[in-house]
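Reopening this ticket.

The earlier resolution said the output was attached, but the attachment link was broken on my side. Pasting everything inline this time so it's all in one place.
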Amino acid sequence: MPDDSDDPDGRLLDDAVGRLVRPYTVSDGRTRPTCHFDLMTMVVATGTALRSGLGLDHTHVLELCRTPVTVAEIAGHTRMPATVIKVLLSDLAERGAVATRRFDLGTQGPCVTPDIDLLEALRDGLLKRL
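Inline output:
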């Protein structure tokens, strides 16, 4: 049975079978975004009013972007594949509704030695949730 309590598009989700509308349909059959995004790209709404009407999924994604959020987080919240989210974000970026920024690794660069204690604590916390 769908849960409409915390999802504005709850009627499109079913706990037993998942999303009732195929992601391919959400992106109008498009599989490639027109803008470059990776999973860690930060996205935030610009506050620019949209002139043309976009779908409910565009509106939901834009709502999630009120505060800076990564592409991966948006995909998780919407339960849609990242590829579909990238297509929707491309539509919003082309209309000036969102701004993007690549994830900043800081001055240490990409070859940072991982903190083993932190990784183990993260693993243990995830295992407790399963």
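Reporter confirms the inline version is readable. The CA atoms of residues 33 and 87 lie 4 Å apart. The first strand starts at residue 13 and ends at 14.
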